[in-house]
Amino acid sequence: MKYTEIMVRYGELSTKGKNRKTFIMQLAQNVKRALADFPALKIHADRDRMHILLNGEDSEEVIPKLSKVFGIQNFSPSIRIEKEMPAIRAMVQEVVREVYTPGKTFKITAKRSDHSFELDSNGLNQELGGAVIEAIPEIQVQMKKPDINLRIEIRKDAAYLSYETIRGAGGLPVGTSGRGMLMLSGGIDSPVAGYLAMKRGVEVEAVHFASPPYTSEQVLQKAKDLAEKLVPYVGTIQFIEVPFTEIQEEIKRVVPQGYLMTITRRLMLRLTDAIREMRKGLVIINGESLGQVASQTLQSMVAINEVTSTPIIRPVVSMDKTEIIEIAEKIDTFELAIQPFEDCCTIFAPPQPKTRPRLDKAQDYEARLDLEGLMARALEGLKITEISAETAKDKQEDEFADFL
Fold it and tell me: Under a CB-based contact definition with an 8 Å cutoff, are residues 387 and 231 in contact?
């Protein structure tokens, strides 16, 4: 089917009242970024719907990218028709012949925003329903949950026909809820946490802690690849690499084994909070799931969280591992996440970490460190990379060239 436009329905944005315009403008920007590979597209964002004029672009390539943009409830690829009944009848018959198979039912759903048109909605439903039965006499009408719902919309400029409704990503447009720092390791949980935060409108920047030579380039690349998997939902992601070797070596030197993980996580949180302040972020996001590992008991969270008053969003905190894995598989991060490369947390993990660390002891052990100097040197060594669809494409081309 040769579609001429895609009609987008907003869903939750429709409840935003006076702020609706801001949300719709942000969604339009996000759609433009997501569909940047299709220069001929024209995007018109109205109060109730968005119209994407294809101008010859292939809808089969556009649709998968559009389906990942948060803030869209659903959308329908549509065909533009001259606003004359003979042309509309002919197109309705052509479409129903193409999509009908024996036993399928249908209905006509007409909407007339141009009230000067010759027929009202009821008249269109009757006239075009008759045209369908004329084309396929054996087809049955069904008003509730038909197999084929032919939607006709009469606008000022033309008539539009659609029969397919594709589910969108839902949620809110990324960027409407502010910016957050995502503590991105190389595991299953943190990319899922980033995805869920973005679904609620948060623009994420990925903070990754690297401890070379204890951690390899493969670990770093794995984290970047995980961030790349989140790019289709937002357009670009800033990847912030934090040099963490000196800090981990110093922690290992002066802190008792049982508290190594607690103090390490406290320093990670301190640094992430400092980066958040530098980058004008509002919150910290991580992939902590309650009780999953020693650093994620309630007692550990209390001892670690004490270093900041910044809100920490934990989207997967109450999920079972199987629930997290289901989302990881859906967003295509699972296979990457289970690659057996050890990150800085696992390299320095003690054999018996404290699951109920005391806050006073954590504070006492941390006081043995030159916090100011260690953090200053780490922050001076930050490396920030922008990850986008274009960088992913360049990487694929380089890999293909190496293969050849």
Answer: yes
